[in-house]
């Protein structure tokens, strides 16, 4: 087993996933104080290169990061500096074995590895309590940063825990544009649910924040009602929603893969569906 484990992420849930995935002394690196692990190194930089250089100087045997864009960038840079392998999108970690989804969600591969190594983790729901004895270290990384913070804006509405949502209205490319996401939000508000999205509209197009991504590389969900708006139904997404009690698919394409995996299907325009359904719900 590794002797020095470094966990880096801006997302506390990824940090908790990392702590739950390993044993022994853990050093958590985060931009804000979290009091998780044995040591929490609080950094004052967002420059991925500087963060990776800081991690490399700790000479870790195992580096764990989350799966956000910044996390993966730091993971890749760190692996390059340490000249060690990297395993992405690991769903389960035990000693020197890691499981990850392959073939677009159709299979799970189990890999054996040797230390040192860098691993990016898929987020899980874990109940990790703060460690009152956690040693807080303020790490000053400034000096050679290529990134200048002009303004800091916090996310509107805060973070949403999709994993515990009972009703989810989820959007895919089929909604047409970022502006049209508001119709899904209006429907979700009428139903008392939350809004999520497929990987293309979160990680690639930026129509929704990355923490709204649903699927194997995002959040696995199990709502009572999952409404998929304009989502084709790639294997990675279907694997993330398979525990939903009722799946409703709204899509213009009757041959979309999600149609075969839905309990109810509406072949039609997703925007018109949202407008009519939201109005009906509000009228009840």
Automatic annotation (TrEMBL):
GO terms for biological process: fatty acid beta-oxidation using acyl-CoA dehydrogenase. InterPro entries: DHS-like_NAD/FAD-binding_dom, ETF_a/b_N, ETF_a/FixB, ETF_asu_C, Rossmann-like_a/b/a_fold. It comes from the Archaea. Residues 161-242 form the Electron transfer flavoprotein alpha subunit C-terminal domain. GO terms for molecular function: electron transfer activity; flavin adenine dinucleotide binding. It holds the Pfam family ETF. Transmembrane segments: none annotated. Residues 48-128 form the Electron transfer flavoprotein alpha/beta-subunit N-terminal domain. Gene3D superfamilies: HUPs (3.40.50.620), TPP-binding domain (3.40.50.1220). Keywords: Flavoprotein, Transport. Belongs to the ETF alpha-subunit/FixB family. PANTHER family: ELECTRON TRANSFER FLAVOPROTEIN ALPHA, ELECTRON TRANSFER FLAVOPROTEIN, SUBUNIT ALPHA (ETFA). This is Electron transfer flavoprotein subunit alpha.
């Amino acid at each position: 087993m590794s002797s020095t484990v470094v966990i880096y992420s801006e997302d506390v849930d990824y940090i908790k996933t990392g702590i739950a995935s390993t044993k022994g002394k853990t050093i958590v690196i985060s931009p804000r104080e979290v009091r998780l692990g044995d040591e929490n190194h609080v950094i004052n930089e967002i420059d991925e290169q500087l963060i990776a250089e800081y991690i490399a100087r700790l000479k870790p045997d195992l580096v764990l990061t989350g799966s956000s864009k910044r996390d993966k960038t730091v993971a890749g840079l760190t692996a390059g500096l340490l000249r060690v392998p990297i395993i992405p999108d690991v769903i389960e970690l035990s000693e020197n074995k890691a499981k990850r989804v392959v073939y677009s969600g159709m299979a799970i591969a189990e890999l054996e590895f040797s230390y040192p190594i860098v691993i990016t983790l898929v987020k899980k729901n874990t109940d990790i309590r703060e460690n009152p004895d956690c040693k807080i270290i303020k790490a000053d990384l400034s000096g050679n940063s290529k990134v200048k913070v002009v303004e800091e804006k916090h996310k509107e509405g805060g973070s949403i825990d999709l994993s515990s949502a009972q009703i989810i209205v989820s959007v895919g490319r089929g909604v047409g544009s970022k502006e049209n996401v508001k119709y899904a939000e209006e429907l979700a508000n009428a139903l008392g649910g939350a809004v999520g999205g497929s990987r293309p509209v979160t990680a690639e197009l930026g129509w929704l924040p990355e923490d709204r991504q649903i699927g194997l590389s995002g959040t696995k969900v199990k709502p009572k009602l999952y409404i998929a708006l304009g989502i084709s139904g790639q294997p990675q997404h279907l694997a993330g929603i398979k525990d939903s009690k009722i799946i409703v698919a709204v899509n213009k394409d009757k041959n979309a893969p999600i149609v075969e995996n839905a309990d109810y299907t509406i072949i039609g325009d997703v925007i018109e569906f949202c407008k009519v359904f939201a109005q009906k719900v509000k009228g009840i």
